[in-house]
Structure formats: C-alpha cells, structure tokens
C-alpha cells in the first residue's frame, strides 16, 4: 500500500487526522485529496484551496529533500488549536536544510516556502518527534469563534 490514513483520532487529541505516504510523486495529489476528504466535516472557515496548496508544497519538498538510508515515509498530520489549523509534514531529512530561498527568475525550484510564508499566518521547521524534520504551517481563524 502506498499510504495509510488515520481518520479516527482519539477524542481527547487535538489531532484531527494524519496520513503516511511513500516518497513518490503520486503522494502529492493523494495528500491533497485525502486532506480535503477528511477535513471537510470540520467546516473550515479558511480557504481549503490555500491549505491544499501549502500541503502540496510541503509534501513535494519532503519527497525531494527527505533522506534516509533505510526505507522511509512522509507523515502529514493536521490539528485544531483553538480556532487555528496547524498542518505538519514530517520527513527523515535534516532540519538545518529548511530555509527560505530567493531564487533567480530563471530557476525552476525554490519558491515553495516563499509561497507558504505569504499564505500562512506562520510556519516553522525543526526536528521531528519521529526523527528527521518537521515543517508546519498555521492558519489562524480557520474556524469561526
């Protein structure tokens, strides 16, 4: 199987859902599709399209830059924190390698985090609790008060 979905988080958890994806190109549209399917019942007040775009960027980066000598996966989790939505993408890469770039106009890559920086209310990168790297974004006021 190329992915697993956790659609029934415990009721005492802030986590609304999670998915584990293999580091292959097909995982990017799969992440968007499954996120939309499982976040829909929560009636977001923010732009679902923006969230899907940011997830696409982070999953793409995780696939491109995640590194491990062993078989590895990309993990996506989404949480409700009061009225905010936080999405985390975990991979086995190195946290020090996550940075905003200022690519030249002719460069084909390097704009993903700039995009996230412009859409999300905030974003963060650092060591993942699963080992490797986590990059997350926060959308404030994702739900009405």
Output the helix-strand order: EEHHEEHEE
Strand pairing plus helix content: what structural class?
alpha+beta
* Amino- and carboxy-terminal Cα gap: 39 Å
| CATH superfamily grouping | Histidine kinase-like ATPase, C-terminal domain
Which parts are unreliable, with pLDDT below 50 for 5 consecutive residues or more? none
Q: What is CATH's topology name?
A: Heat Shock Protein 90
Major sheet: order of its strands?
1-2-3-4-6-5
Tell me the overall shape. globular
Helix content: 25-40%
Number of helices: 3
User: How many distinct beta strands?
Assistant: 6
CATH domain class: Alpha Beta
Strand content: 25-35%
Protein name: ATP-binding protein
InterPro entries: Anti-sigma-factor_SerPK (IPR050267), HATPase_C_sf (IPR036890), HATPase_dom (IPR003594)
Domain Histidine kinase/HSP90-like ATPase: 25-135
Pfam families: HATPase_c_2
